[in-house]
């Protein structure tokens, strides 16, 4: 099991009381599988992703990343763990405008204390894996929205993470390009053996998941993914 959240409770200050964002949530994501997380705005999806990324420490419960419990780890050790075992695909690619597609990936090696030049073959290999081998020398303004999101995905994989956390990757894309991004994430999850968590608002993407985690008022319910025909019915959830 590469990602394990057990009995997670997370609260935030709310005036004289506290607001419960996650209420005793348990989620296990094996390597090579994709779990889709859905739920209305404010349900706790973003909090769940932040806890899984070790960006927020929960009030209670345990987070285990690639066999390493995170409870009690120093800030420095958490940063190392995050950098080397967790890849995050943000909703917006946030690519550096002055860097080429390959350089966007190479800078991740620099952050990890490795030579960007020596990391170039790895960067080119990943760009090829996401279908952008011929775009390695292009800068963000020369790429389409779908291509920029593919660079974003490749960048998240640069340090060979075991856990991949993906936040609404298709929100700025049309349906065709969004479906292509989801297909890519599914393929890379299988090929590279990542434990992938995908937060999405689009139920049409749920058929690509191995499991669906539906979050309401901080509580999580697991379900099997719907079949392709049921996703055509708005609001349908088996």
Automatic annotation (TrEMBL):
<dbReference type="InterPro" id="IPR027417">
    <property type="entry name" value="P-loop_NTPase"/>
</dbReference>
<dbReference type="InterPro" id="IPR003593">
    <property type="entry name" value="AAA+_ATPase"/>
</dbReference>
<dbReference type="GO" id="GO:0016887">
    <property type="term" value="F:ATP hydrolysis activity"/>
</dbReference>
<dbReference type="InterPro" id="IPR003439">
    <property type="entry name" value="ABC_transporter-like_ATP-bd"/>
</dbReference>
<keyword id="KW-0813">Transport</keyword>
<dbReference type="GO" id="GO:0005886">
    <property type="term" value="C:plasma membrane"/>
</dbReference>
<dbReference type="GO" id="GO:0005524">
    <property type="term" value="F:ATP binding"/>
</dbReference>
<dbReference type="InterPro" id="IPR017871">
    <property type="entry name" value="ABC_transporter-like_CS"/>
</dbReference>
<dbReference type="InterPro" id="IPR017911">
    <property type="entry name" value="MacB-like_ATP-bd"/>
</dbReference>
<keyword id="KW-0547">Nucleotide-binding</keyword>
<feature type="domain" description="ABC transporter">
    <location>
        <begin position="3"/>
        <end position="237"/>
    </location>
</feature>
<dbReference type="InterPro" id="IPR015854">
    <property type="entry name" value="ABC_transpr_LolD-like"/>
</dbReference>
<keyword id="KW-0067">ATP-binding</keyword>
<dbReference type="GO" id="GO:0022857">
    <property type="term" value="F:transmembrane transporter activity"/>
</dbReference>
<dbReference type="Pfam" id="PF00005">
    <property type="entry name" value="ABC_tran"/>
</dbReference>
<protein>
    <submittedName>
        <fullName>ABC transporter ATP-binding protein</fullName>
    </submittedName>
</protein>
């Amino acid at each position: 099991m590469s990602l394990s959240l057990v009995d997670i409770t997370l609260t935030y200050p709310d005036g004289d009381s506290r607001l419960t964002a996650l209420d005793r949530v348990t989620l296990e994501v094996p390597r090579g599988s994709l779990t889709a997380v859905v739920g209305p705005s404010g349900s706790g999806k973003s909090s769940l992703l932040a806890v899984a990324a070790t960006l927020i420490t929960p009030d209670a419960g345990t987070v285990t990343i690639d066999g390493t419990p995170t409870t009690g780890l120093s800030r420095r050790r958490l940063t190392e763990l995050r950098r080397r075992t967790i890849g995050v695909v943000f909703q917006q690619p946030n690519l550096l405008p002055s860097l080429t597609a390959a350089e966007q990936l190479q800078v991740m090696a620099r952050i990890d204390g490795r030579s960007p030049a020596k990391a170039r073959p790895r960067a080119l290999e990943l760009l090829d894996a996401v279908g952008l081998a011929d775009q390695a020398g292009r800068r963000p303004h020369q790429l389409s929205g779908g291509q920029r999101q593919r660079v974003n995905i490749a960048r998240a994989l640069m340090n060979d993470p075991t856990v991949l956390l993906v936040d609404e990757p298709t929100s700025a894309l049309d349906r065709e390009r969004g479906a292509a991004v989801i297909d890519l994430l599914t393929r890379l999850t299988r090929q590279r053996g990542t434990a992938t968590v995908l937060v999405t608002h689009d139920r049409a993407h749920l058929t690509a998941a191995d499991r669906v985690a539906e979050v309401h008022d901080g509580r999580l319910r697991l379900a099997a993914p719907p079949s392709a025909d049921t996703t055509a019915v708005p609001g349908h959830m088996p």
